[in-house]
Amino acid sequence: MKAEIIAVGTEILIGDINNTHAQYLSRELASLGISVLWHTTVGDNQNRLKEAIITGIKRSDLIIFTGGLGPTKDDLTKEIVAKELSKKLVKDMRAKNNIESMLKKAKREITNNNYKQALVIEGSKVFYNENGTAPGMAINENGKIIILLPGPPLELIPMFEKDVKSYIMNLTDYIILSHNIHLYGIGESKVDEVLADILEGSNPTVGIYAKTGEVRVRITSNAKNKQIAEELMKKPMDIVIERLSKFIYGIDVENMQTAVVRAAIQNGKKLSVAESCTGGLIASNIVSVAGSSKCFDCGVVSYSNEIKEKVLKVDNSILKKYGAVSPEVAEQMAIGVRKISGADIGISTTGIAGPGGGDKEKPVGLVYVGISTEYETKTYKLLLAQNKQTKRQTIRDLTALFAMNEARKKLLKGRFVKLSL
Amino acid sequence: MKAEIIAVGTEILIGDINNTHAQYLSRELASLGISVLWHTTVGDNQNRLKEAIITGIKRSDLIIFTGGLGPTKDDLTKEIVAKELSKKLVKDMRAKNNIESMLKKAKREITNNNYKQALVIEGSKVFYNENGTAPGMAINENGKIIILLPGPPLELIPMFEKDVKSYIMNLTDYIILSHNIHLYGIGESKVDEVLADILEGSNPTVGIYAKTGEVRVRITSNAKNKQIAEELMKKPMDIVIERLSKFIYGIDVENMQTAVVRAAIQNGKKLSVAESCTGGLIASNIVSVAGSSKCFDCGVVSYSNEIKEKVLKVDNSILKKYGAVSPEVAEQMAIGVRKISGADIGISTTGIAGPGGGDKEKPVGLVYVGISTEYETKTYKLLLAQNKQTKRQTIRDLTALFAMNEARKKLLKGRFVKLSL
Question: What are the contacts of B163-171 at 24+ separation with CB within 8 A?
Fold first, then answer.
């Protein structure tokens, strides 16, 4: 089944918000064996919305609209779709009652334009909204399925998980499975060359995807059942693992922080973090993983010498002699936070994230990472600014990625993390 | 000028990565007075890429392609665009040399497929890549401008800022200006109703945009020069400020953390943060703002009772009596971190972000926030899980937003933040 996702909203086209639904829905549809071939974003404009609908129906079997179901005058999705399908809008009493109770619950005044949201396309399957006032709906006609979903993520995601996913699952009769092999420390084109001989297949497919600081190899197959799909994937999986094992940080783990948290929990070890330039980013990444409290309970953000001394017990003399951005201070920060917390591993970062603060000797992008255990404390020097344009956030993200990967290696003695473990 | 952004990459269509370039480029083009009317994403597929190019040229004056310039076999953008424009690909020696030096610098092996990236479309303006091996290029023919940019953000953004922006600026002869009024604590449809009478204009335009936990009113005008554009915006600006002042947290500030950092620096005050459920998110948000070291140097992530006691000096008896998720503990955490850090304001969070850990008495989404100064310490009770589907990250984001807004109110005694201040 060929699918297309059409986001409706001028706020996306002027860059006020990011179209995160395209990613969320694409991932969900892929997991259901549905190929998304197009993403389109169009503004709250009658003519262009009409063009998007006509094009979508022509080239796709499943068209999912996100946004434009709000109460305001420029929310047009429902109206234009109904018009293109020559259907009426009819009032849905359950939607109306839901709107009234939602707004009461939120102690929000009920405005007249809210009632516009109680209208649905005649003959559609209505998805009631537990988190907002706009109902979703699905129309299935002449082999084309058109689904309308509200824009706010807090409304769309729960609605998709509760009702829309099962609605779509009943439209397909085979499954698709994927495995993701996550790599750190190797470039995309090198991976492409190493795996050139297995990139041509169609079932399973092998794809290479790069993002800031890492590369992912995704192997996907479709079949009547899980067992056959897994059998199809086994050979390429073994090849990738054999050829790239030393770069693999995890298989089927969501991201680096998930790999680190799993590794720590599997080994019954606790982590602690002392952050200067990353300023809480590593702690926040770790805590973003559900269940991380089992392996993490202490982070210190020490953004000045005073706090490094006072909280992390870094020697004043060391700070004076070498400066805050130095291997000596990274080492003492890592040891300090490990001791305060009683954790098995102390992770530290100190560096110059920019845009200001750099000089010839210590340029923007210079970062020291420390990893401390009761047996040894190691520090690492990183130069993360490829040039003057490199962003503060990028330097912080790359630092967090490196530090978490070193902690993972410590925990697993180089082995990688498998979801199944 | 009508613009369209076409992202090329199967990894976007299967949801592996988010198309962040669409937002970045849309915002940049808006600031140059160019209306982006379409975002399209298409996979690394010959036929669909061809369809996207033909459609783009038909309906848009400026078409920007992102991605598909990589070294691998399935990177097709340059090849297909050249074919559609009936142009040859020619080797660019400076691009070739750049590739060789880039890869040497990165200590990466030079693979044959890298040389594919030294080819450019004949007659195009080439944008050399300081951060990668793929050159960008622009073709200007028959009133249509087609720009090709590399996919990795670390390459695209610096290239756009250094060369592409000025290239595009030379294509237009007027400017567009915007002001953004950021609101917290009021819903989108209420704002729509309050401002209904000023939403119809065309120059300036007034738009309302909602995202998790906040609403933004954007006023935009275009004119021959800055002064005229500002004059056009003055009346609606005054109206919005007059009608919604008590919900405004900032004007022309990037986000809540920027508002808080500005407020603190303007008032010569220092912040400190003790985080349990947000686990470093508030610290990381603050540190993401360049210059935040002037007003922030201490954060503690205390994810267990032990660390709350040991580092933040929360009374063991209080923890035993009321539990970690309680106003009493939030209060002591805020006081504790303020004292440790010597900051003027201590911010604390303790709550249940889920998915586990909730019960009848203390459900997932129950959060206490503490704000402490030398004069008083206040705590706030939040219930942030609208239902079982509410995500851990959402609860953490809403908590951070609330806590930062309370800190802002403390700093400004309710006044809001202006970029110009």
Answer: B163/B127, B163/B128, B163/B136, B164/B127, B164/B136, B164/B138, B165/B28, B165/B32, B167/B125, B167/B127, B167/B138, B168/B29, B168/B32, B168/B34, B168/B62, B169/B32, B171/B1, B171/B62, B171/B145
